[in-house]
Specification:
The complex is a heterotrimer of chains A (356), B (485) and C (332). Helices cover 42% and strands 9% of the residues of chain A. Chain A is built from twelve helices and seven strands. In chain A, the strands form two sheets. In chain A, strands 1-2-3-7-6 form a five-stranded parallel β-sheet, sandwiched between helices. In chain A, helix 1 runs parallel beside helix 12, helix 2 runs parallel beside helix 9 and helix 5 runs parallel beside helix 6. The radius of gyration of chain A is 20 Å and the shape is globular. The two termini of chain A are 38 Å apart. Chain C folds into two domains: 182 residues, Thiamin diphosphate (ThDP)-binding fold, Pyr/PP domains (Rossmann fold); 128 residues, Rossmann fold (3-Layer(aba) Sandwich), CATH 3.40.50. Chain C has 14 helices and 14 strands. At the A-C interface, helix 5 and helix 6 of A face helix 3, helix 5 and helix 6 of C.
């Protein structure tokens, strides 16, 4: 068993986009054109999430999707921006609000939609539902319905990398609510103590379900508190996808280089209620509108327009492609098979065992 | 509109007491559904109806005794049968009590055919005419039965009945202290307090008792709170009549004193049986045949089968004997049926009556329908179920009246051969004794084999000795090939 | 996992056998590592891992902070990533802090992911009472864990099982919980080299008998065997079954035994209500009803938090005399 050794610096931080995508990036040597192309990619990723989530609202209301559904609308910049910093070999642990993270990671809209329809073609075989999206091939470890439940898991994935001397990053997404859980503090301490290659990404959307941040945290500067565990911690504007990407890259590089765990506090906001069941009584409508003015998608579009990028044309293409993807996903899900009831007891243990 | 009438549940039954309605007006009923509980001198029976339709009107109150044939209820039947040409309007009001039943429409069962074969006549749709008097033998001791029953007959309201049922109290055993001899709640509760506790038997002991035919009521328990355990049953099975008196037919059960046993009811039953047996013996010229059957093959096969089978699927020797008796009856149909009106009517199917001794003393012989078609495990299950229901008084009417030939098996009582009295209107009674080891000649050498004595009591009006001999030969042959039973 | 280099000590203790098992595992598979509170420098709260830090180093024998949830979860994550962690939770009493990770992650990831993510994790815990450790340090909660689909629950009660259950547990692609009763660590005896790989699926008949089946596991085994001895002197032949695995438990061996003896008593140190003994009893009722010649007896702890005072603790726990009395109730 080899001990951890200092990892080499990555020379080429170009992100590998996981999953199949039609060639949208314009391959030019021109840096500006690369930037345009990259922005278009970011925009498309965010739009994909946005349109997918909007469709979920419809489908849930039509009772095609059941159970709990937690929408990511407004927070797209976080998943998309952070994902740019990760490689195909890195690991991602997310929460129950993970549709955006799954799609950004490259899990197809079809696989996610089918999962919510409970069909066998879903990324968890229909067994998980909205809150339990998994994809082992993309090192996407869920999808966890217990607040802060994924944090120790992420520490373990990072521990394995450290013990094997692999320069991979485990990126763990969680919310401000998780900051209150013991598991966060235990994990932060353990990660710092053992210098685990863990990127802790706290999506602070100012509410833990129905309880505002200042009502559940005595000290609301989360990055400062995380730093007190002995790790590098930054706060970032979570509504600016390029800022998110930049910061995430810096942090991931450092983690990969062996600098120990990093904490990012992404200040963001969800435009819709906690879940489809939530009447959202605890938020001031004016506050929501204020944050909608900072919609990350519009922000990026505005910036592209300011810089003279051909936004409208790009957007039209994006909308078309994304609409087709989502439509196809729904159609496919509608027709996908359901797992036969006779298979109920599958997947309890790895080998079919005679359970008592 | 169809009528549901007081059925005849035995050749000696003239009247019955409606104890309980199982359906109410407006309920949907199907042919074969039990709709009422009727009490006769011999037992309490759930009676089924033979129409499918809606129970429209209940005509008789529970507790009323009426002659056989009296309409008890009206069933609204969807009109699917054409009116008989000579009929006028359909009868729709209560008629004067008749000892008669209407014929079934197309597709009637053999059960109904038997009813028709019974000496009753009536035609649906005919204008009322005086019913022909039933050709009952004049010597049936009807007055005696009625007198006895009047003394014991219980009146009780539905709440009290419900309470009694819940507590497992037999209302027949009580003298009512209320007005007019009505049984009151207090009477029931006192009876509950006075009676001995329900038999406590371990599951294993119960199973062993069923397998070996031991009557648990006669076993002394040595477990906690006098619970009967396996060892107690085994002792009872292996040592007949030494310390534990076994219940033989006709012996009143011994109970601790201070008890209010079913003596009265037992007496009534004895009277009824006495009447029936006397009549049978008097009217039916019996002849008797007997043969000894080599049971080696059968017992070997049984032993093997049971060894390989889980407990729930094990068979008693009785199952083999009954199946052989049924198959032989199919082979010799002259012995399978009934003698009425000076002629023999073959039974439509072999419905094997099985003589069952009752705990309070007494005997019933309910039928295993189509016993010749039952596979041995099925027959075993049906037999157990029948015996249980016979002993708890929950037989169906069709079981009580439909037997086409009866078997009496006293093997578990240690008797080797039995020559019984035929149950009219049947024409034969088959008897089996105990399977015993006996010395006999086997291929010219002296050996010991398990054997059973099989007997036939037959009605000489219907058959003669040659037929009877054929039957017993068939039984013998069948028992040599147990795997084909 | 017999080792050719080091001959098995003929005389050994349960503790040493468990240590030897860990040593074997660490030596033969790079992916295996031990993680828990005080497993390294301290040598393990119960001395099981004494010497292992020195032999295998700090990467393979990791002392953790007092963060049950975090390090059990970390064990899960490491297992997902392909390592083979042995997580030691000091006692079952502290496992409650990690219950969420065990139930909602370890036991459930395979299912939630539709079969994609198996968790080959082994968690060892000390369990049981009897040393006046009072209410918060005396629990027997293996029955709670045996309630959960997706995990295997083991209770080694003999030297042989202590030595040889770890290897198949590590080879299991799914989570395995091993409960070691605190009173067993000092038990000493002869340990024969394993003749065949140990199977985890079957209960063991530790003593054959004909009159009653005494069914137990873990720390209650010695008392049950002692009870069988006493009963023999009184003319009652008791068959003693060591369940060894609580989930999935070997109902078939139990049923076969009851079919022979027609009586059963289940001995379990947990509180009686909702205990694992209740499960065994229910299974016997379901599967062996027609074999029973007496009600199934249960010998469990009294329904009281474990008291400190010696005589009270003794009275609360199932003792040999209680087992003997239960057998007499069933047989006499």
């Amino acid at each position: 068993m080899s001990l951890a050794r200092p990892t080499r610096m990555r020379k080429d931080p170009a992100p590998q986009k996981p999953g199949k995508r039609s060639a949208t990036s314009k391959k030019t040597t021109n840096k500006k054109k690369t930037r345009i192309g990259h922005r278009a990619d970011l925009l498309e990723s965010m739009m994909r999430i946005r349109r997918f989530e909007e469709r979920c609202v419809e489908l849930y209301s039509a009772t095609k999707i059941r159970g709990f559904v937690h929408l990511y609308i407004g927070e797209e910049a976080v998943a998309v921006g952070v994902n740019e910093a990760l490689t195909h070999e890195d690991a991602v642990v997310a929460t129950y609000r993970e549709h955006g993270h799954a799609l950004a990671r490259g899990i197809t809209a079809e696989a996610v939609m089918a999962e919510m329809y409970g069909r066998t073609t879903g990324c968890s075989g229909g067994r998980g539902g909205s809150m339990h999206l998994f994809d082992a091939s993309r090192r996407f470890y869920g999808g966890n319905a217990i607040v802060a439940g994924g944090l120790p898991l992420a520490a373990g994935l990072a521990l394995a990398d450290r013990m094997r001397g692999q320069d991979r990053v485990t990126c763990c997404f969680f919310g401000d609510g998780a900051f209150a859980e013991g598991e966060f503090h235990e994990t932060a301490n353990l990660a710092a103590l053992w210098r685990l290659p863990l990127l802790l990404v706290c999506e602070n959307n100012l509410y833990a379900m129905g309880t505002a941040l200042e009502r559940h945290e005595a000290q609301t500067d989360l990055a400062m508190r995380a730093a007190s565990y002995g790790m590098v911690a930054w706060a970032v504007d979570g509504m600016d996808v390029e800022a998110v990407e930049q910061t995430a890259r810096r942090a991931a590089e450092a983690v990969r280089a062996g600098a120990g765990p990093h904490f990012l506090e992404l200040r963001t906001y969800r435009f819709r209620a906690h879940s489809m069941y939530d009447p959202d009584r605890y938020r001031d409508k004016a506050e929501v509108e204020r944050w909608k003015d900072r919609d990350p998608i519009n922000r990026l579009i505005d910036r592209m327009r300011e810089d003279g990028d051909p936004v409208d044309e790009t957007l039209a293409g994006i909308e078309r492609r994304v609409a087709a993807e989502v439509d196809h996903a729904v159609e496919a899900a509608e027709q996908a098979p359901e797992e036969p009831v006779e298979h109920l007891l599958h997947h309890v243990t790895s080998t079919p065992s005679e359970v008592s | 509109m169809a009528e549901f009438t007081m059925p005849s549940l035995g050749a000696d039954m003239d009247e019955g007491t409606l104890l309980e309605w199982l359906v109410g007006p407006g309920d949907l009923v199907h042919r074969g559904d039990p709709v009422a509980v009727v009490e006769t001198a011999k037992s309490t029976i759930e009676v089924e109806c033979f129409e499918t339709g809606t129970m429209t009107e209940l005509l008789v109150e529970p507790g009323t005794t009426v002659p056989v044939g009296t309409p008890l209820a009206l069933i609204g039947v969807p009109a699917k049968k054409p009116e008989p040409p000579e009929g006028g309007e359909k009868p729709h009001t209560t008629r004067e009590p008749r000892k008669a039943r209407q014929p079934e429409g197309p597709g009637e069962t053999e059960r109904a055919a038997k009813r028709r074969a019974a000496p009753r006549t009536q035609r649906k749709g005919e204008p009322a005419k005086p019913p022909s008097p039933p050709p009952e033998p004049a010597t049936v001791p009807v007055p005696v039965l009625t007198t006895v029953r009047q003394g014991v007959h219980t009146e009780a309201g539905p709440l009290v009945r419900h309470l009694a049922e819940q507590r497992g109290v037999d209302l027949e055993t009580l003298h009512g202290s209320g007005p007019g001899g009505r049984v009151t709640r207090t009477d029931v509760e006192e009876a509950v307090a006075a009676r001995p506790p329900r038999l406590r038997v371990t599951p294993l002991a119960r199973r062993l008792a069923a397998e070996t035919g031991v009557d648990l009521a006669t076993v002394k328990g040595t477990g906690k709170d006098s619970a009967i355990r396996a060892a107690d049953v085994r002792r009872a099975a292996h040592g007949p009549a030494t310390e534990i008196p076994s219940a033989k037919i006709g012996t009143p059960t011994v109970r601790p004193s201070g008890e209010r046993p079913s003596v009265d009811r037992g007496a009534a039953m004895r009277q009824a049986i006495a009447g029936l047996m006397s009549r049978a013996n008097r009217d039916i010229p019996h002849y008797y045949l007997s043969t000894t059957v080599d049971m080696a093959a059968a017992m070997d096969w049984l032993h093997e089968h049971n060894r390989r089978s889980p407990v729930g699927e094990r068979l008693l020797p009785a199952a083999l004997l009954l199946k052989a008796a049924a198959l032989a009856a199919r082979d010799v149909p002259e012995l399978n049926g009934s003698w009425t009106d000076d002629h023999f009517t073959a039974g439509e199917g072999v419905h094997l009556g099985v003589a069952v001794s009752l705990r309070g003393g007494g005997l019933v012989a309910p039928a295993l329908h189509h016993a010749d078609t039952l596979a041995l495990p099925q027959l075993m299950t049906a037999l157990k179920d029948l015996v249980t229901r016979a002993r708890t008084g929950r037989l169906r009417g069709s079981e009580v009246s439909d037997a086409t030939i009866t078997v009496t098996n006293l093997g578990d009582q240690g008797v080797e051969a039995v020559f019984g009295v035929i149950y009219p209107p049947q024409v034969a009674l088959v008897g089996f004794g105990r399977v015993v080891d006996r010395p006999c000649a086997v291929a010219g050498l002296l050996g010991v084999r398990p054997v059973v004595t099989s007997t036939l009591s037959a009605d000489h009006r219907a058959t003669d000795g040659a037929v009877g001999a054929r039957y017993l030969t068939a039984v013998t042959r069948l028992l040599q090939n147990p795997e084909q039973l | 996992m017999g080792d050719g280099e080091r001959p098995e000590a003929a005389k050994t203790t349960y503790r040493e056998a468990m240590r030897e098992a860990l040593r074997d595992a660490l030596r033969s598979d790079d992916r295996v590592f031990l993680m828990g509170e005080d497993v390294g420098r301290y040598g393990g709260c119960f001395g099981v891992s004494l010497g292992l830090l020195e032999e295998f180093g700090a990467e393979r024998v990791r002392d953790t902070p007092l963060s049950e949830s975090a390090f059990v979860g970390a064990g899960i994550g490491a297992a997902l990533a392909g390592l083979r962690p042995v997580v030691e939770i000091m006692t079952v009493n502290f496992s409650l802090l990690a219950l969420d990770q065990i139930l909602n992650n370890a036991a459930t990831l395979l299912h939630m992911s539709g079969g994609q993510l198996a968790v080959p994790l082994v968690i060892r815990m000390t369990t049981g009472a009897g040393r006046q450790l009072a209410a918060q340090h005396s629990h027997s909660l293996e029955g709670w864990y045996a309630h959960i689909p997706g995990i295997r629950v083991l209770a080694p009660a003999t030297l042989e099982d202590a030595r040889h259950m770890l290897a198949p547990a590590l080879a299991d692609p799914d989570p395995v919980l091993i409960f070691e009763h605190g009173s067993l660590y000092n038990v000493s005896g002869e340990l024969l080299p394993a003749s065949a790989p140990l199977d985890l699926d079957h209960a063991a008949i530790r003593r054959p008998g004909t009159d009653i089946s005494l069914i137990t596991y873990g720390g209650s085994l010695p008392k049950t065997l002692a009870a069988a001895d006493e009963l023999a002197a009184a003319g009652i032949s008791a068959e003693v079954i060591d369940l060894r695995t609580l989930r999935p438990f070997d109902a078939r061996t139990v049923a076969a035994s009851v079919a022979r003896t027609h009586r059963a008593a289940v001995v379990d140190e947990a509180w009686r209500t909702g205990s694992f003994a209740a499960e065994v009893s229910a299974r016997i009722a379901e599967e062996s009803f027609y074999e029973l010649d007496a009600p199934v007896e249960r010998v469990c702890s009294a329904e009281v938090p474990m008291p400190y005072a010696r005589q009270l603790e003794e009275a609360a726990l199932p003792q040999t005399a209680d087992i003997v009395a239960a057998a007499h109730r069933a047989v006499d």
